[in-house]
Write a structure and sequence with these properties.
The structure holds 2 protein chains of 2 kinds. By secondary structure, chain A is mostly helical. Chain A contains 11 helices and no strands. The chains are: A mainly alpha, B alpha/beta.
Chain lengths: 259, 213
Amino acid sequence: MLEMFSYSFMVRALVAGTLVSVCAALLGVSLVLRRCSMIGDGLSHVGFGALAVAAAMNAAPMAVAAPVVLAGAFLLLKISDDAAIALLSTASLAVGVLAVSMTTGMNTNVYSYMFGSALAMSDADVYMSVALSAVVLALFTLCRDKIFAVTFDETFARACGVRAEAYNTLTAALTALTIVPGMKVMGALLITGLIVFPPMTAMRLCGSFRGATICSAAIAAACFFAGLALSYSCSAPTGATVVAVNALAFAAASMKKPR
Amino acid sequence: MAVVSFHDASFAYGGRTVIDGLSLDVDEGECLCIVGENGAGKSTLMKGMLGLITPSGGSVKTTSGAGYLPQGDGGWKRFPASVSEVVISGCLARHGFFSPFYSKADKSEAEEHMERLGVASLRDRPFLSLSLGQERRVLLARALCAARTLLALDEPTAGLDQDAARTFYEIARRANRSGMAVVLVSHDPDAAAILSARVLNMGDAKTPRDKNA
């Protein structure tokens, strides 16, 4: 079991993947409760478009994707309408596919943007994941009480003078920062799984917000570890295995008698 | 000193003017009871007062430190939140970005209000497992954590039994005596008398008449 981590690519995948999973799971609690989980999905498609265009122009993919996804987060928060999110995400997907087909064609590179390449992370990818996750974890910890208040009862929070708008924007921006390294690990089409599954599982098990966030993060980390180990031993794609493990955990938690 | 002051304020919803040119002051230690038929704009007035909606004309000034008890069901289906988490969130009114965590004083204040409202034993229960009466008590405790200058209660006793309603009025009266302004919207015909409040009758006309003004 431990021998698989004697490979440095496995260690890199474990470090980056666990951090990204934990960040996505924490932010996911608020996104799911505000019925905004599709923002994560929309952003990952925007990210795919940006990565594909960057690759077509021979630019550094992550450096281009990060600001584009961040801009997408502000835009999606402003419109935050179901149909508008679908428009933006399919349009981005189309732009991405056109960009690659006009240049390199649909190759393994494109495949890895869509479904992730956790085992092919470079040192630079890992450093960036660690840095972005540190920012996300720090800001989330500092703002968790306000994020709770704004998520639970935005009207009351605003009546108290809490700047609800600012904290909603912050949540969207942090989601964007999580999705960028998340796409490398999980792929644009699978990253939403990390935002939605762990919070949904945790909410079945916990009655407090504090409990649900901690539980969500723990479930995400455990599922990533299990998914990575399983994908290594069965030579299955990592991103898909991690999401499948998350789905199993959710199904198991759903068996529990509803509170 | 006026805690709330409407100056020729108008509010509109989707093109329809609900409140037209209202001028009104609520002073420190004053109690105002807003009555009127459904759709007369009572809740609109309350939201305007709390800065939740902006006036379409005129101006509204409210000092900071308002504690708000919203009306009815907030739609918190499946939301994981414990009673103590909900109550203490009222204290966030005094926390900016640079004071991220609750202080000891916040915790003891939340505890005190939970005791007063008889929900201290529910502290760790999930909020969504509460009965309507318990839910209203918890939300009042939250409002008291936030209230420093003004307590704004929207239909505080709707759906409550007489005992619970009496507790609510008693708490509002005590807050009022300690110098806080209290504004409530109520369908209870006795509310104004119990709280010896000034009455603002919104009627069903567009321009409300202030009985005592």
